[in-house]
Amino acid sequence: MSGQLNKQKVLVIGGSKYLGLAIAKQASEAGAEVVIGARNPEQASQAAAQLPLASAIRVDITDEGTIAAAASQLGHVDHVVITASAHHNVRVQDLEHDKIVTAFEAKVIGPLLLAKHFAPIISPAGSILLFSGVAAWKPSPEYTVMGVTNGAVAFLVSQLAKELAPIRVNAISPGITDSGTWNVLGKQNKRELLESASVSSLVGRAGTADDIADAAIWLLGAGFVSGETIHVEGGTRHT
Ligand SMILES: NC(=O)c1ccc[n+]([C@@H]2O[C@H](COP(=O)([O-])OP(=O)(O)OC[C@H]3O[C@@H](n4cnc5c(N)ncnc54)[C@H](OP(=O)(O)O)[C@@H]3O)[C@@H](O)[C@H]2O)c1
């Protein structure tokens, strides 16, 4: 990957932790000038301090004002990666209106508004990379909001790719990946989730952050791929 993103500016929103940070690290190793975007400026700066040539910027994907301000401050970028999500993993009977709306803001409305403000400053050979997820293709109780928002992302990339061309717009749909986000479940529940993900994949394991970051770096440089959702989930949809 060394040099693949030489001299390219890559904004990673959600870059202060988990998959976003893994992608930011690999982008940096590939020669990019990385900008870590996060709603918590301190966390963004701490992540940026780990990488050569990196800087930090405040972006809350649910707040259009911060998106517009970031576009105006940066002036030009080659690629924008958005890993932001807001989980509302409960059974249908326990759904809460505001949490459903926030989940859509993080995955669908925010990226739409990001396209509005960033398309004019993204290089014509550049791209936007969104995150969908396997829950869209494998319905499961408690993951309905995640499934529906991830499914919307797959339609969003084809719509945006058409309108923003030649800027490429793609998504990665990860399978269950041990990025750090599942630590909230506690050790035992997390182990069970990863074991069940291994059983339901064709390759006998859950994903690693590097599995997803490898695919992300490839997609940023894949000049003949646009409007696609790339499934990086060990074939889980086929089991
Ligand atoms: N890990 C998996 O198993 C898996 C599976 C399928 C799909 N995915 C998708 O892959 C993407 C990345 O997942 P992940 O594993 O890294 O965990 P995640 O918990 O989904 O990470 C979300 C990231 O977005 C940031 N974020 C949340 N709300 C934000 C906001 N309003 N504005 C800006 N940033 C915000 C979080 O940072 P702060 O909260 O600190 O702001 C964090 O960096 C997500 O879209 C997720 O749905 C992951």
UniProtKB/TrEMBL annotation:
Gene3D superfamilies: NAD(P)-binding Rossmann-like Domain. One of its GO terms (molecular function) is oxidoreductase activity. CDD domains: SDR_c. It comes from the Bacteria. Coiled coil: none annotated. The keyword Oxidoreductase applies. Pfam families: adh_short_C2. Keywords: Oxidoreductase. Belongs to the short-chain dehydrogenases/reductases (SDR) family. This is Short-chain dehydrogenase/reductase SDR. The lineage of its organism: Bacteria, Bacillati, Bacillota, Clostridia, Eubacteriales.
